[in-house]
Amino acid sequence: MSNLFKIFDVSGSALSAQSVRLNAIASNMANAQVASQTPEGAYRAKHPVFASVLQAAGQSGSATPVRVVNVLESQAEPVAEYAPNHPLANEQGYIFKPNVSVVEEMANMISASRSYQNNVEVMNTTKQLLLRTLQLGQS
């Protein structure tokens, strides 16, 4: 029975991790077209790094929660765009925009959203199983 309760730990940690992922994606999409005067000042896409937390070494098949270990910034070079009339254009007439692909971010958002939904479903199913187990004990 205690293993069923561990499912809530694992799903809850996965929900939290996917929430961080969705926030990073939203930030990336919101800043995808933000211009900068220098390449160094351009927005860098953020990507969370996940890891499973091993609770007991040597226990195969045990439930392992997920956590965010880091949020990395993309090392991709910003896109230089010739826009001499832009207020942020440098002396050569260039502005720099993040190398963020909105299409890739949308695909990541769909993936994170589905993962979030799946973990909510796991929690709901586990809750129903626990309730039915309790009902069996009452009869």
TrEMBL record:
<dbReference type="GO" id="GO:0071978">
    <property type="term" value="P:bacterial-type flagellum-dependent swarming motility"/>
</dbReference>
<comment type="similarity">
    <text>Belongs to the flagella basal body rod proteins family.</text>
</comment>
<dbReference type="Pfam" id="PF00460">
    <property type="entry name" value="Flg_bb_rod"/>
</dbReference>
<keyword id="KW-0282">Flagellum</keyword>
<protein>
    <recommendedName>
        <fullName>Flagellar basal-body rod protein FlgC</fullName>
    </recommendedName>
</protein>
<keyword id="KW-0966">Cell projection</keyword>
<feature type="domain" description="Flagellar basal body rod protein N-terminal">
    <location>
        <begin position="9"/>
        <end position="32"/>
    </location>
</feature>
<dbReference type="InterPro" id="IPR001444">
    <property type="entry name" value="Flag_bb_rod_N"/>
</dbReference>
<dbReference type="Pfam" id="PF06429">
    <property type="entry name" value="Flg_bbr_C"/>
</dbReference>
<dbReference type="GO" id="GO:0030694">
    <property type="term" value="C:bacterial-type flagellum basal body, rod"/>
</dbReference>
<feature type="domain" description="Flagellar basal-body/hook protein C-terminal">
    <location>
        <begin position="92"/>
        <end position="136"/>
    </location>
</feature>
<dbReference type="InterPro" id="IPR010930">
    <property type="entry name" value="Flg_bb/hook_C_dom"/>
</dbReference>
<keyword id="KW-0975">Bacterial flagellum</keyword>
<dbReference type="InterPro" id="IPR006299">
    <property type="entry name" value="FlgC"/>
</dbReference>
<comment type="subunit">
    <text>The basal body constitutes a major portion of the flagellar organelle and consists of four rings (L,P,S, and M) mounted on a central rod. The rod consists of about 26 subunits of FlgG in the distal portion, and FlgB, FlgC and FlgF are thought to build up the proximal portion of the rod with about 6 subunits each.</text>
</comment>
<keyword id="KW-0969">Cilium</keyword>
